[in-house]
């Protein structure tokens, strides 16, 4: 993506959501299935099928079920079958050629552990569902916010330069050093309410919460977004301020005031470290090379659902960092 952006004429508008979502679906399908889907057209086809199911599922969640035998139901089933056929093929190929250059992907690990094929298909799909729109939207919102605040962007750039020695290469050993970038990422999760809620119910036994006994099967919903706007926890909650997440400020707050990856102990989001590493990597690489600017007059409104997404495309312009460095 950085290479592609480097070739763009100065001042050209970049469709940030389109670009970043393509990157996010490539990342999650490759990490789950290995190099089975590398071809850009195939990624786009998978994404289209995925979106058909995702938006239909979003409607179903709001009580809008398709009529049996309707075109809508057929479209949903065809898209789902397309994805599951790919998953079945991935498993067959990976079984014959388990690892590629020591890069073990989710499917390789499941094959090694003799997970039945149908469970593997569902688990691989669950990871795509868990890791595509979430990471894609986290990135789009972060780029949108940093495009509004050049001084925050400069600080992030400086951190990447200082901590990663100009390489942009984020690895498990150095990701923890990107303290300010993490603050910006967390403030984005709060402001954009990327995941608006987490929900659980206990299958078997009563749960006692705050003195109330909740019977089995009762949904317990944690309205994450409500807490993120609570002025008793966050002063001026409408202001984008990454300093709220400085280590000192975090230590002052109750840990439950910010749990963007869920509240369910061992069953909280299993992808959160991966998501942090992925978003930090992409930001580090973009900001090392470019300054991103918002396009005057284009507002960005949020559309809430399973994941919060901008209502329309988020257009940005970019200028190579080298231009600014020359000016200075
Ligand atoms: C912005 C990034 C992400 C956010 C905000 C997010 C948020 C969440 C939340 C709130 C939950 C519910 C947890 C609960 O009920 O307490 C969850 C569950 C889950 N997430 Fe994520 N997630 C993100 C990225 C990812 C990624 C990258 C993956 C996979 C690679 C992933 C896979 C999953 C799965 C499989 C579950 C279900 C866990 C279970 O039921 O045991 N998520 N996530």
UniProtKB/TrEMBL annotation:
Transmembrane segments: none annotated. Heme binds at residue 269. The keyword Heme applies. The keyword Transcription regulation does not apply. Keywords: Heme, Iron, Metal-binding. Gene3D superfamilies: Cytochrome P450. Its cofactor is heme. Pfam families: p450. GO terms for molecular function: heme binding; iron ion binding; monooxygenase activity; oxidoreductase activity, acting on paired donors, with incorporation or reduction of molecular oxygen. This is Cytochrome P450 20A1 isoform X1. It comes from Lingula anatina (Brachiopod).
């Amino acid at each position: 993506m950085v290479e592609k952006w480097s070739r763009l004429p100065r001042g050209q508008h970049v469709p940030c959501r389109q670009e970043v979502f393509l990157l996010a679906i490539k990342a999650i399908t490759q990490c789950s299935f290995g190099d089975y889907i590398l071809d850009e057209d195939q990624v786009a086809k998978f994404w289209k099928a995925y979106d058909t199911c995702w938006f239909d599922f979003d409607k179903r969640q709001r009580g809008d079920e398709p009529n049996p035998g309707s075109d809508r139901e057929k479209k949903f089933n065809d898209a789902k079958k397309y994805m599951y056929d790919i998953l079945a093929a991935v498993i067959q190929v990976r079984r014959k050629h388990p690892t590629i250059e020591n890069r073990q992907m989710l499917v390789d690990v499941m094959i090694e552990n003799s997970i039945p094929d149908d469970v593997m298909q569902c688990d691989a799909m669950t990871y795509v569902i868990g890791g595509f729109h979430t990471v894609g939207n986290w990135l789009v919102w972060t780029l949108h916010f940093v495009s509004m605040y050049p001084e925050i962007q400069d600080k992030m750039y400086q951190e990447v330069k200082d901590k990663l020695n100009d390489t942009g290469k984020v690895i498990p050993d150095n990701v923890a050093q990107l303290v300010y970038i993490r603050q910006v990422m967390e403030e984005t999760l709060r402001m954009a309410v990327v995941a608006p809620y987490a929900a659980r119910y206990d299958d078997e036994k009563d749960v006692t919460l705050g003195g109330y006994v909740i019977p089995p099967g009762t949904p317990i919903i944690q309205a994450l977004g409500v807490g993120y706007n609570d002025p008793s926890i966050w002063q001026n909650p409408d202001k984008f301020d990454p300093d709220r997440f400085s280590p000192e400020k975090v230590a002052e707050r109750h840990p439950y005031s910010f749990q963007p990856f869920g509240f369910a102990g061992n069953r909280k989001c299993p992808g959160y470290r991966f998501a942090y590493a992925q978003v930090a990597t992409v930001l580090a690489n973009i900001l090392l090379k470019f300054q991103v600017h918002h396009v005057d007059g284009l507002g960005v409104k949020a559309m809430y659902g399973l994941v919060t997404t901008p209502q329309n495309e988020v257009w940005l312009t970019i200028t190579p960092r080298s231009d600014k460095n020359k000016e200075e």
